[in-house]
Design a protein that fits this description.
The chain is α/β, with parallel strands linked by helices and 352 residues long. It contains 13 helices and 7 strands. It has a 5-stranded mixed β-sheet.
Length: 352
Amino acid sequence: MKVYAGIDLHSSNNYVGIIDEQDRRLYQKRLPNQLDHILCALEPFKETLEGVVVESTYNWYWIVDGLQEHGYRVHLANPSAIKQYEGLKHTDDKWDSFWLAHMKRLNILPEGYIYPKEERSVRDALRRRLFFVRHRTSHILSIQSTIIRNLGYKVSARDIKRLDESDVDKLFDDPYLRLVVRNGISAVRFLKERIKEIERAVTSHAEVKPEFEYLQTMPGIGRILGLTIMLEVGDINRFPSAGNYSSYCRCVKSEKLSNNKKKGEGNRKNGNKYLGWAYVEAANFAVRFYPEFQRFYQRKKAKKNGVVAIKALSNKLARASYHVMRDRVPYDIDRHFYNYSACGRESEKGLV
């Protein structure tokens, strides 16, 4: 007799539900987030257990790794893709755990990607780098606004990064303004060192896979962005098409159309926000240094606005990089961007 287990995971506890092939409930209990308690609950069913479904929450690493190390077949459920019966008036943790097991029994479970454990810490280090970059930017913007508000002129971000704490005395007479800006400069410098420290560690230890080496040939993608994309994607073959990959990278609109009219929106947060950031950064760099991308950006910006234009360009880069990584070929700009015709419109073909 085959049995199926579902675990509804929370920050401090979890609810385990186990069913058989006839959907009969064999076990149900709330347990603390301790691996030995969960293993004891599953042990009597281990021989006939077809799979353990764990809800994909922010803290799934420990339970998935622990169950896999003890020989269990673990499936990571994608909560945003799970459909429930809309007529339900009441649900709770017990119902959710059995619903996870029920979907596995029917083979209709939307599964998430279980990222390899050996590469996960390096990926999370780059995510922490992005966290520090954003905090450094917030401090730079705060210093800029303080100068504009009190002195009436703007100082570029590059010049602010060059400021020394001793330069603050030349800018302000008020001791409290000096204190605020001096602390801001100190925070910027501290975060810069932490960012560089992470970059040195990641670039020296990360093993670049062959299919991702070709990312370096793409416009706007350097060493750090290439490593970010490499580590966030994992196995590129898990995406059946460029469209699926671009959607996962949050590079496409999440809207529902009928007769060219907007009828609603989907979940805009579906996908990987770190890949979305990486391709927007790549698009901004590409616009700076590549004339073909500058022309594409200007044409889109004239029709919509700068944000939409950058997002459209990031979508093209994401779709192109899918083929670069999957086929392990260098990026060929002629396959994506051609010279403007006499009508001033860009001819496009190939992969995007």
